[in-house]
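Form 7-S
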Amino acid sequence: MDTAAYLKLQNGSDVRGVALPGVADEPVDLTPEIVKNIGYAFANSIAEKKRTEPSLLKIAVGRDSRLSGEMLAKALIHGITQAGASVLDCALSSTPAMFMSIVYPETACDASVMVTASHLPFHRNGLKFFTAEGGFEKEDIYNLLLRASQVDITDRSLPDDKVSSFDLLSLYAAKLCTLIKEKVKAASYDKPLQGSHFVIDAGNGSGGFFATKILEELGADTSGSCFLEPDGHFPNHVPNPENAEAMKSICRAVTENHADFGFIFDTDVDRMSAVFADGTPINRDSIIAFMAAILAPDFPGSTIVTDSVTSDRLTDFLEKDLHLKHLRFKRGYKNVINKCRSLNASGIPCPLAMETSGHGCLRDNYYLDDGAFLAVTILIALAKQKASHQKPEHLIAGLSQTYAAKEVRFRIEEEDFHAYGDRVLADFKLQARSKNFDLPTSYEGVRIRFPKGSLSAHFKRGWMLLRASLHDPVMVLNMEGETEDDLLQITKMAKGLLSFATRLDQSGLS
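Output:
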């Protein structure tokens, strides 16, 4: 087998590739044959890790709504069973539910795999792997793909009982319903959401169950919910809470249907954002602030971990309004999750790690980035607030909404883009230091903070962050000012600081 063909499928701690033909210049590289071999290698690697025989393992397999999902899940199951392991075929599922198949005593799986590529286009797909310790790390993916590239399976006949079907999503939803009932303790115990109206946008991914199996089951009105039916063509909008059109869709659905609140999920339901009744989106900085505000009373003085592109407005809110600590770390959901784990292990309380993308994990939920569990946490808070006649908006009333922001992506026109990116960051930092700019601690790239009056007499405040992409020949510049004029001044300063970087396509700064 061509080892390089396998290794190029690594995307951080996931496997990603092109699964369907039809898009120019994107040949299929995630084939059923490759996925079968990955399944075989995965079963054997889990057996080695657990010091047992593959025949004693039970591995859960699920998928999202992608067009290639059934085909690849079938190939994956074939590989796992050829290794000797049994498979729990969960069919349509969510990524968090697949991890919980290891936790639940009803399923008690040794490991699990989710066939998904999150919000990527319809022709792409991928794989996420879980053990009891959580999701695979980058090193695990590399070793798995290396091992899979050396697999040569001679198919053998297997007993019929090697594969069993299981409705995992229904069990997962029932567990979340029980949690809501226990936490809310409503007078009508089995219908704690009665009298509330919630709108869901599932983007034609796997998240429609949240409306039908949770909200409606608990008495809520879900009229006006949209795109609940799984459809791997994703005909309505990109199933991505970061996408502007997706957020417009859920905001419009909430206001047009006069709902109390709205939730939007990505394809495999590991990410979530929300909407207030008046159509105000709760995403990026505001969804982190909202979750932190819910948790703050139970975790006073604790630390909230976020990715690198969060704003100084969020820091002010977390530290001044909620009296928490803000640790701004790196992009990448595994990075923030692992930082949250390490802080708690060292004795520093950290109840939440969350990215602006909507990925968020709670310490008390297995450090699992679970969009549905975050939504449940919000539902519990909303139900309690309703009983005390409070509006949810008050939770983040102290988060400044006055700002202007921009993200610019620069293509690196150098073959060794990693080395060039490193040089640009080093020189950019030197340029900033030469102007005596404020350079706060940054775990990713170079961040500059601009206080009041630093760029002109009427300048209010702002910041910028320059970072390099891990996988692509791209550098990303995030900028934010309190006003449009502040943003213009920051943009002008960015041009000056980057004037030396002639191999960056800076047309986006114009």
